[in-house]
Amino acid sequence: MSAAPQAPAEIAAAVIDPLAYAEWDGLLDKFDVLRRDMPVARIENGDLHDPFLLVTGYDDVMRISKDNKTFLNSPKGVVFGFREGEEIVKAVTGGSPHLVNSLVALDAPIHPKYRRLTQEWFMPKNLKQLEAEIGALAKTTVDRLVEASQENGNGEADFVPLAASPYPLHVIMQILGVPEADEQRMLFLTQQMFGGQDEDLNKTGMANMTAEQITQLVIGAVADFETYFAKITEEKRANPTDDVASVIANAKVDGEYLSDRDMAGYYIIVASAGHDTTSASTSGAMMALAQDPEQFARLKVDRDLLPGIVEEAIRWTSPVQHFMRTAAEDVEVGGVSVKKGDWLMINYVAANHDDRVFENPRKFDAARSPNRHLAFGAGAHQCLGLHMARMEMKILFNELLDRIETVELAGEPKRAKSSFVGGLKTLPLRCTLSK
Ligand code: HEM
Question: Across the strands, what pairs with 346?
Answer without folding.
Answer: 55, 323
